[in-house]
């Protein structure tokens, strides 16, 4: 049991802990560390490393939030909204098979 005067030990994540929690695969985590997009590990001993939880929490909080609101309407060069109508029910290249515009390729023979 800890004495009340002692500070609690920091939580350390090992590489497998990060993989299990969904931060990416082992190679993805190391690739991000090398690119400076993930916090580097700290040396715990001669042959062990880990990531302090406070650094992982800080990294996670610094990531941009993804929003799922309604998309903004597309605007044309004149600033007016582009017509976003439905596709025409009429086939683009005719109704005979899967023909290309050039007439060659896959399709029905006449």
Describe it for me?
This protein has 110 residues and is α+β, with helices and mostly antiparallel strands. It has a domain at 12-62. The chain has 3 helices and 3 strands. It has helices spanning 15-20, 26-35, 53-62, and strands spanning 12-13, 42-45, 48-52. A 3-stranded antiparallel β-sheet has the order 1-3-2. The mean pLDDT is 79.
Give the helix/strand layout.
Layout (H helix, E strand, L loop, with lengths): L11 E2 L1 H6 L5 H10 L6 E4 L2 E5 H10 L48
Antiparallel strand pairs: 1-3, 2-3
**Percent in strands:** 5-15%
> What value does the Rg take, in angstroms?
28 Å
Strand line-up across the major sheet: 1-3-2
Order of helices and strands: EHHEEH
- How is the main sheet built? 3 strands, antiparallel
The parts where pLDDT drops under 50 for at least 5 residues are none
Q: Kindly report the average pLDDT value.
A: 79
Distance between the termini: 88 Å
Structural class: alpha+beta
Report the oligomer. single chain
Number of helices: 3
Shape: elongated
Helix content bin: 10-25%
Total number of beta strands: 3
